[in-house]
Amino acid sequence: xxxxxxxxxxxxxxxxxxxxxxxxxxxxxxxxxxxxxxxxxxxxxxxxxxxxxxxxxxxxxxxxxxxxxxxxxxxxxxxxxxxxxxxxxxxxxxxxxxxxxxxxxxxxxxxxxxxxxxxxxxxxxxxxxxxxxxxxxxxxxxxxxxxxxxxxxxxxxxxxxxxxxxxxxxxxxxxxxxxxxxxxxxxxxxxxxxxxxxxxxxxxxxxxxxxxxxxxxxxxxxxxxxxxxxxxxxxxxxxxxxxxxxxxxxxxxxxxxxxxxxxxxxxxxxxxxxxxxxxxxxxxxxxxxxxxxxxxxxxxxxxxxxxxxxxxxxxxxxxxxxxxxxxxxxxxxx
Length: 334
What we know:
Layout lengths: L6 E11 L6 H13 L2 E10 L7 H10 L3 E6 L5 H10 L5 E4 L10 H9 L4 E6 L7 H18 L3 H4 L4 E4 H8 L4 H6 L9 E6 L11 H15 L2 H30 L7 H29 L11 E6 L23
Parallel strand pairs: 1-2, 1-4, 2-3, 5-7
Antiparallel strand pairs: 3-8, 4-6, 5-6
């Protein structure tokens, strides 16, 4: 479905940036040009992802120069998905577009909007150009993707791009989750919404790579938030260990009664060790099951902290936000 006239809706474009400095304006101007022709109203939500102090004056100047701009500064740097969710959670749009200007472009924006108008709730847009990883990082990413695909049934190469367009009802559903940022991170596994994936090819800048340690931390969090299989595997191993120790205890008793002549103390020591390992396996099984049942609870504290906020001094919005039209006029009391 093609759009000939601007869509009468408010689009929120979430742009996480880190140490963008003087380049921030160059990132935002093409975005404003692209979305202004497709939507009657828009806002650009810049999330400064823990940049150095030198970037702050640039954002202050942008708020005075560019229209419909919201800037949120995070106290420290977080993962891209967490920074993006900070922008989504504080946006007002009917649709939310998450975009990484360093590694993506908006050449597929009209197609993504058409998919939304055709009934899709979530549109992923994947840049097929490979990232510029080092040898160690490339090996780690390949192994993780295969493991993640085997455990969750989701292909990270196809369904986890940063570029995504969401409807308001998807954002509202995520907000109901106990840990919404984790649900946003694993958006490809959310059920009840119509999804599609578009592909294109564009150059990547990859200005700053995460490194293996942050990537490993993200991997563990993503794996545990997406599937219970790792914990279920621990539970099954603990249960198997308990059963094997019971069999071993029976074997020790059979040897002691059938053969009769064994080394002094062997029967007692073997039963003691098998009993201890049996209890240890049972405790591990109970703890694993308990953790599996409470994994969705929050661990306390917000995933990000906003330390400053600036609003553009120029607004081009045509719609009145959060105002209900009323045909009746209320007269003052006499």
